Amino acid sequence: MSQPRAASLIDVSTYLPGEPIGADYYAQFAGSDELRDNLMFRAPKFRHHVGPDETAIDMIEHAAQKLVQRHGEDLIADVDVLITHTQLPDMPFYGAGGGIAHRLGMRPSWVLDLHNGGCAAFVLGLKVARQLLAAGEGRTALIAIAQNAAGQVFDQPGVRGMAQASVPGDGAAVGLVTLSDQSPILDVECRTYGEYSGDMTYITDPPRKWWQPGPGEGCIGFTESKITKVLARGNREVPEVALAVCDRIGLASKNVDLLVTNQPNRVFLRNWREALEIPESRHVDTFDECGNLFAAGIPVNLDRAISDGQVKAGDLVLMAAFAHAGDFAGAAALRWGGRG
Predict the structure, then answer these.
(1) Sequential DSSP letters for 22-63
(2) What residue ranges define each of the domains in the chain, with the CATH number in brackets?
(3) Can you give the pTM of this predicted structure?
């Protein structure tokens, strides 16, 4: 009997570091910022921060524990393909893949550290895992995402008073992909908009390259003009990739059972579900509990929906996100089969 060649996302598991940090934490540092009232930076009620000595590998190890409990150490140890994304790498010269493999007792044939996927990295990871497994490069893949910039970049003393600092939160997630028909990945769409690749900038005052020593803490270079462009791109790109997937699987977006996106702010969340004609009750988010989780947003929200019973076996799940200043976007459709 031939083996199934469908790739399924059979489980996700997540981790949020530390105790929730309330909006009043940032209120005490708030300074004069011309972007303070911008819709882009309306603060969530809570978010989590990575610990001062907590590494991306530590976060992934915590996130993987429930997978180990549910599926056993042997399945995780036998993963053939490890795909990782870390928002803020622990080391500048290499990714976390090797360290994650060692910590989880793996000897994968493939270790891929993705960086360009940004907030859509989980979708990109699904595409890569699906292609590799379908091509015969193994039977299992683990996608590991660590968002760890909130408690490190955005909580610097010179940055935490800015409007941008109160929105991000930290978290980690892992997704287990296998060759099976349990929860098949029906389709994935990834698009690169290279013309926007230089529009997200990391700045200091006075200016210097990010790796050069000197005064002035680094932060994201937002301006009113850049924010306007990013809002327009995100509002367009996420529905574009989501609708492309829906068209190929033959389902109107309004009939999707659950929409899972990244969550930069409330404005994007509202605009995306309106564009896709999906009611708020079928669009899961944890923005007020976790803030902008960047690439961890999709798997954290999917895990929450599964655990809360918001998505049930047989439901069609649509995931979509855009990255950085709009240089990448991706969407994926999944027929959820339940946790085995």
Answers:
(1) ETHHHHTT----TTTT-GGGPPPSEE----TT--HHHHHHHH
(2) 7-181 (3.40.47.10), 186-336 (3.40.47.10)
(3) 0.97
